[in-house]
């Protein structure tokens, strides 16, 4: 049976769907566990700067593919508010170095605050008492892992189809 699968003309697609399945699993289990506000903690600091970068993994260069990284004076990591129910352009234009920033991050990310390479997700954004993103909206925007689960399911359907097709020959 394995010989048939390895010699099948669609073997490259079997490898692709297997890789896609593994990526979906990795993304699902790499997500912070955030169900409600009890899973979050508040981080405060002064804004050092905000960087605006195009997503290197995206082929299109639209406004939806821009990543905003927030750097605070007292933390080595950078923070990312990746949920778009807030006015990111207004935040980017109005934010200045020294502004007081308040972010809600997963408790499990507390250990990453002094890691230079860490990207810490934020579920809220408050700048000088102006709320750009409420915690409830951030949690709702985070979702329940449905994207990652759909990647796994679609790849499993493709894998099953190709393996059954290969073994019937």
Relevant terms:
single chain; 169 residues; alpha+beta; 7-stranded mixed β-sheet; 7 strands; elongated
**What distance lies between the first and last C-alpha atoms, to the nearest angstrom?**
10 Å
Q: If you average the pLDDT, what whole number results?
A: 84
Low-pLDDT regions: none
Share of helical residues: 25-40%
**Structural class by sheet pairing and helices:** alpha+beta
Q: Tell me, briefly, the overall form.
A: elongated
- What's the number of extended β-strand segments? 7
Radius of gyration, taken over Cα atoms and rounded to an integer in Å? 21 Å
Q: How do the SSEs run, as a string of H and E?
A: HHEEEHEEEEHH
**What topology, given as strand order, has the largest sheet?**
5-3-2-1-4-6-7
What can be said about the biggest beta sheet? 7 strands, mixed
Percent range for β-strand residues: 15-25%
Outline the structure in words.
It is a single chain. The protein is 37% helix and 25% strand. Helix 2 packs antiparallel against helix 5. Strand 6 and strand 7 (130-133) form a beta hairpin. The protein is elongated. The longest helix is centred in the C-terminal third of the chain and has 22 residues, at 146-167. The chain starts with a helix and ends with a helix. The protein contains five helices and seven strands; from the N terminus they run ααβββαββββαα. A seven-stranded mixed sheet has the order 5-3-2-1-4-6-7. The protein has 169 residues and is an alpha+beta fold.
């Amino acid at each position: 049976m394995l010989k048939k699968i390895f010699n099948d003309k669609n073997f490259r697609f079997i490898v692709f769907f297997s890789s896609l399945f593994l990526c979906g699993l990795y993304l699902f289990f790499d997500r912070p566990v955030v169900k409600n506000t009890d899973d979050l903690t508040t981080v405060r600091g002064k804004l050092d700067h905000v960087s605006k970068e195009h997503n290197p993994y995206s082929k299109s260069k639209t406004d939806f593919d821009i990543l905003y990284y927030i750097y605070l004076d007292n933390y080595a990591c950078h923070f990312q508010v990746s949920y778009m129910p807030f006015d990111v352009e207004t935040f980017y234009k109005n934010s200045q170095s020294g502004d007081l920033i308040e972010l809600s991050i997963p408790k499990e990310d507390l250990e990453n605050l002094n890691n230079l390479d860490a990207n810490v997700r934020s579920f809220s954004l408050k700048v000088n008492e102006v709320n750009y993103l409420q915690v409830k909206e951030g949690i709702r925007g985070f979702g329940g892992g449905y994207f990652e689960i759909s990647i796994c399911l679609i790849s499993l359907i493709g894998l099953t189809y190709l393996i059954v097709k290969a073994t019937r020959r």
